[in-house]
């Protein structure tokens, strides 16, 4: 029987330079989408997919992230005293069970591949998920859950895939497709951030992965690639060379690139509009500013 995917790595050791000066003291993953930090969306998605062990690869200055998942006894006591049970419930959902969460340090931001490799001893010899919290995916069925269900049929390695316009290929890992099976593609190669004319397809890898432990062994041997960083893409591509399967999974849902300012703003508006308590005010405001903008043109 195939091993269940119960461990997930959350690489959160990046410098977050696109959000300076905010990220000088606030980790990007703690930045707030409506009223929850980005990392909470990633944790909820992992839980829905059956993940039981949460491994954070962190770095210097990310202490706020560790505190976020800790219990807050004084705050809880205060809320209890004031009878604010709804807020107590909100807080309770952010608490993590003792022992379910582990933190590993990446001492230098040497790239996503290196961050994943840092967690190798906690993964051991089982398949594992990787979630990049700055890719936020709004979906009826959470993206990782869709992938875990597909993975139970296929095994191998699986990456979330999304069509992007040709001029955007140079921002992503791009898939070279052997066979297109609809919501799944059989991958025969992967290229990290190719020039537009050199991209093998328009299918880009998005920040959700289910990987075999062999990928960690490949990472042992990988030297720095595109941008001088140790690329996870190269270690997954090495699986294909060793005759192991890699699939791209076309998830259903809308992905927001919350690692970029524009993507973060779009996600804020979209998640705000999806909230019953905010929808009316926010849409009235958006209609207002759009009509002022249209009149000005
Ligand atoms: P990004 O490419 O978005 O880099 O990393 P970044 O440092 O977070 O942000 P910018 O580009 O400087 O604004 C994608 C994911 O990989 C993690 C990041 O934390 C993010 O979740 N990462 C990246 C690491 O954990 N370690 C690294 O060395 C690089």
Description:
The chain is globular. Strand 9 and strand 10 (184-192) form a beta hairpin. The chain has 297 residues and is of the alpha/beta class. It has helices at residues 38-48, 63-68, 73-81, 85-92, 112-118, 120-123, 143-154, 214-221, 232-241, 261-273, 276-296, and strands at 7-11, 32-33, 36-37, 53-58, 101-105, 128-131, 135-138, 157-163, 173-180, 184-192, 203-211, 246-250, 254-257. The protein has a single domain (7-259), classed as Spore Coat Polysaccharide Biosynthesis Protein SpsA, Chain A, CATH 3.90.550.
Task: Please describe the topology of this protein.
Blueprint: E1 7-11, E2 32-33, E3 36-37, H1 38-48, E4 53-58, H2 63-68, H3 73-81, H4 85-92, E5 101-105, H5 112-118, H6 120-123, E6 128-131, E7 135-138, H7 143-154, E8 157-163, E9 173-180, E10 184-192, E11 203-211, H8 214-221, H9 232-241, E12 246-250, E13 254-257, H10 261-273, H11 276-296
Parallel strand pairs: 1-4, 1-6, 4-5, 8-12
Antiparallel strand pairs: 2-3, 6-11, 7-13, 8-11, 9-10, 10-12
Helix pairs in contact: 5-9, 8-9
The chain binds uridine 5'-triphosphate.
Residues 11-18, 28, 57, 106, 109-112, 114-115, 132-134, 259 line the site of uridine 5'-triphosphate.
């Amino acid at each position: 029987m195939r091993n269940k995917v119960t461990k997930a790595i959350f690489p959160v050791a990046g410098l977050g330079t696109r959000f300076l000066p905010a990220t000088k003291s606030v980790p990007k993953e703690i930045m707030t989408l409506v009223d929850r930090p980005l990392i909470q969306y990633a944790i909820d998605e992992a839980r829905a997919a059956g993940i039981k062990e949460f491994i954070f690869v962190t770095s210097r200055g990310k202490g706020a992230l560790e505190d976020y998942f800790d219990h807050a006894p004084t705050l809880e006591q205060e809320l209890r005293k004031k009878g604010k049970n709804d807020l107590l419930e909100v807080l309770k959902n952010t608490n993590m069970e003792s022992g379910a969460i582990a933190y590993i340090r990446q001492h230098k931001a040497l790239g996503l591949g290196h961050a994943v490799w840092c967690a190798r001893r906690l993964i051991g010899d089982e398949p594992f998920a990787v979630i990049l919290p700055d890719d936020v995916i709004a979906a009826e069925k959470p993206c990782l859950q869709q992938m875990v269900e597909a993975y139970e049929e296929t095994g191998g390695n699986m990456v979330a895939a999304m069509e992007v316009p040709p001029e955007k290929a140079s921002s992503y890992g791009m898939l070279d497709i052997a066979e297109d099976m609809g919501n799944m593609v059989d991958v025969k190669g992967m290229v990290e951030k190719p020039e537009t004319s050199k991209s093998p397809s328009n299918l880009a890898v998005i920040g959700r992965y289910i990987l075999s432990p062999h990928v960690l062994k490949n990472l042992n041997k990988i030297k720095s690639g595109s941008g001088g960083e140790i690329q996870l893409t190269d270690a997954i591509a090495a699986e294909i060379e060793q005759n192991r399967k890699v699939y791209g999974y076309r998830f259903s849902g809308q992905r927001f690139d919350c690692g970029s300012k524009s993507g973060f703003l779009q996600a804020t508006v979209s998640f705000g509009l999806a909230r019953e308590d905010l929808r009316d005010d926010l849409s009235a405001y958006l209609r207002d500013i759009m009509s002022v903008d249209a009149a000005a043109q």
